[in-house]
Design brief:
The protein is 50% helix and 6% strand. By secondary structure, the protein is of the alpha+beta class. The protein folds into 4 domains: 149 residues, no CATH class; 125 residues, no CATH class; 203 residues, Leucine-rich Repeat Variant (Alpha Horseshoe), CATH 1.25.10; 80 residues, no CATH class. The strands form 2 sheets. It has a 4-stranded antiparallel sheet, sandwiched between helices. Strands 1-4-3 form a 3-stranded antiparallel sheet, with helices on one face.
């Protein structure tokens, strides 16, 4: 089966057009649907006409098109121009034998197509009337768009606004698909009345995004539909309180569902109220009790209760939670448990403090060899044997083992497998000269988690000072994740050669310097975990930003809007900025004018168009048209200017 792109390329080849940059190279071009307006307008006037009863209307249309394209500067310096295919612009140039009218025709017998100059200024459309082909030239697309925006942005009277909103429902029936998009948008509309939220949440099954009120969460917890209750876990542990987690799980009567919810709670590291742990430990379903043993915050008394469970699997799972609080006699009892799985779990925990001998290891009674090596203290001869073992998996596990002699570390530092050396280089017991001497592999662009042992030292100023000078980037990145750091450590990290260190400092450390935050802003716009950083960092510059309004860098230029002295005139100017990020910031600015908001609805960049669609400055009649359009309905439903009464009618199911 051919892909859409392959089909498009086949059409271009048949038309004799060559690829001159493909998709994604039309950053100055307005959307295809917006380009169609002046061509399909009832007020359109032809620049040239070809009669359909001509000897060869296709060849004549091509000739006229080429004449107009040459005369009006349609072609770029390389001969490139844009044609729409599959809803997007495709950059092409004419081949030796080209024929547009015959190949790009919309319907058999009707040569209709559009072409646009690479700079987005000149548009030539070909359309079929009753007896002739019209070639329509829009010599200045931007001037046309501006004139149209001026008309649409006219001031509305209260009567006109009321009539516009009534028109949302009074004409042709609104399709169900459009109403579905409305529901998704309304759910996150800041003007949504709270009494409508439950119905929209249930309808859309969307539980993430804007924080749900506690009262609404309580209603969802008690909802009879399992899919609704299960969907609540999308909120994670950040929004669900221990009391809500407890009620959600304990109220679940279906054994499978209750087990699933406890497992999800384990994954989310959710905590419960004390009584909930006790009830789950007494659950009639063994696998629920087993999963309970892994819950975060499990009280020691509850862990002991689970150790006495008649089901071996429950006792096995409870070993890890209970072990730190057991005395020597209780530990010996677990080591002698009649169930092999319990004994193996207890022995693995036992060997975190008492070395594993080679004979015990090779007997296999402790379970997974790599897991045993990584989690256990090893007798010297076993560690020495494993350091030269032919199985690289065991050597990798050994490199992470908690206690190793300097002799074994020295052997592993020369291991032929780079992955072994890389794991070794991240040990907490290495000196920094030792770490620097290891030839480890590190991919700067890879995804790495903060090293747990560095995180545990975040409050130790001397440790942070020492580790901030490490040669290993991941160690320094982990230091940068500390919330507070000494001034000299901050200064060192702010000048680090690894810019990810700067990023983590900007995201996590309250002491990050303003000048570095500004540098990070030049290349980073926020992550899912820290969506506003660095711009929302407390130390990010807030004043003296107006001088950036003329800066050549768009990331700095847009900051001028944050200055308290910035004006609506600057917002208006930025709606015409050459860079889409600056225009997007202008589109989201509350000082945006009606004209600016309407102007940006046809912006070449989709993110700018979406931001403009959400602007409360849009006239009512324009917003209504956006709500009726399936392509813009969801974003338009986010617009806070929609009256409360209209929101209620929009939220109604047809």
């Amino acid at each position: 089966m051919t892909t859409p792109r392959e089909r498009a390329e086949a059409v271009l080849a048949e038309a004799g057009l060559e690829d001159a940059g493909g998709w994604g190279r039309a950053e100055h071009a307005l959307p295809v649907r917006a380009a169609l307006r002046p061509i399909a307008s009832v007020a359109a006037e032809p620049t040239a006409v070809v009669r359909l009863d001509a000897a060869d209307p296709y060849a004549e249309t091509d000739a006229q098109w080429f004449r107009l394209a040459t005369g009006h500067g349609l072609f770029g310096e390389d001969g490139g121009f844009l044609v729409p295919l599959l809803g997007s612009w495709f950059r092409v140039r004419l081949g030796e034998r080209w024929r547009l009218a015959k190949t790009l025709q919309a319907q058999p017998g009707s040569p209709e197509f559009m072409t646009l100059s690479p700079d987005g200024r000149t548009l030539i459309g070909v359309t079929t009337e009753e007896y002739a082909v019209w070639l329509i030239v829009v010599a200045d697309v931007r001037a046309y768009q501006e004139q149209r925006a001026l008309v649409l942005a006219r001031e509305e009277s209260e009567e006109e606004q009321k009539a516009a909103w009534e028109g949302l429902f009074s004409r042709i029936r609104i399709p169900q698909s459009t109403r579905e998009r409305w529901a998704l948008g309304l759910l996150h509309n800041p003007s949504l009345p709270e009494d409508l939220r439950l119905g929209l949440v249930l309808h859309t099954r969307r539980f993430h995004g804007r924080a749900l009120p506690a009262k609404l969460i309580d209603e969802l917890i008690a909802h009879p539909d399992w899919k609704v209750r299960c969907g609540l876990v999308d909120l994670g542990s950040d929004q669900l309180t221990p009391s809500q987690w407890s009620r959600l799980v304990l109220a679940e009567e279906d054994d499978r569902h209750r087990w699933a919810l406890v497992g999800i709670a384990v994954e989310h590291r959710a905590t419960f109220v004390p009584a909930a742990y006790e009830r789950l430990a007494a659950d009639p379903v063994p696998r629920v009790r087993a999963e309970t043993a892994a819950l975060t915050g499990l009280p020691a008394a509850v862990a002991r209760t689970l150790l006495a469970d008649p089901e071996p699997r429950v006792r096995e799972c409870a070993c890890a939670a209970a072990w730190p609080n057991l005395d020597s006699e209780e530990r010996r009892a677990l080591l002698a448990d009649p169930a092999p799985g319990v004994r193996a779990a207890a022995r693995r925990l036992h060997h975190r403090e008492h070395p594993v001998s080679r004979a015990v290891f090779e007997s296999g009674e402790l379970g997974d060899p790599a897991r045993v090596v990584e989690d256990s203290v090893l007798e010297p001869d076993l560690a020495d044997h494993l350091s030269r073992h032919p199985d690289a998996d065991l050597r990798r596990a050994l490199a992470a083992s908690p206690q190793l002699s300097q002799e074994v570390i020295a052997v592993l530092a020369e291991d032929p497998d780079s992955s072994v050396r890389s794991i070794l280089a991240l040990r907490p017991d290495l000196t920094e000269p030792q770490r620097a001497a290891i030839s480890y592999a590190f991919a700067p662009a890879g995804h790495y988690s903060t090293l747990p042992w560095v995180h545990a030292l975040h409050d130790d100023a001397e440790a942070m000072r020492r580790l901030a000078a490490s040669t290993h980037p991941l160690v320094r990145r982990s230091v940068a994740r500390a919330r507070r750091l000494p001034p000299d450590v901050v200064d060192r990290l702010a000048h680090d050669e690894d810019r990810v260190v700067h990023l983590f400092l900007a995201e996590s450390c309250d002491d990050a310097p303003p000048w570095m935050l500004l540098q990070v802003w030049l290349w980073w716009n926020g992550s899912l975990s820290s969506p506003g950083r660095p711009r929302t960092h407390p130390a990010f510059p807030r004043t003296d930003l107006l001088h950036y309004a003329e800066d050549p860098h768009p990331r700095l230029r847009q900051l001028a809007l944050d200055d308290p002295e910035s004006t609506p005139d600057l917002v208006e100017r930025f709606t015409l900025d050459p860079h889409h990020e600056v225009r997007c910031r202008a589109a989201a600015d509350p000082r945006l004018s009606r004209l600016g908001a309407v102007r940006l609805l046809d912006d070449p960049d989709g993110s700018v168009r979406r931001a403009a669609t959400r602007s409360p400055r849009l006239p009512a009649h324009v917003l209504v048209s956006l709500l009726r359009d399936p392509e813009t309905a969801e974003d338009a439903a986010l617009n806070p200017a929609i009256p409360a009464g209209i929101i209620r009618r929009m939220a109604e199911r047809p």
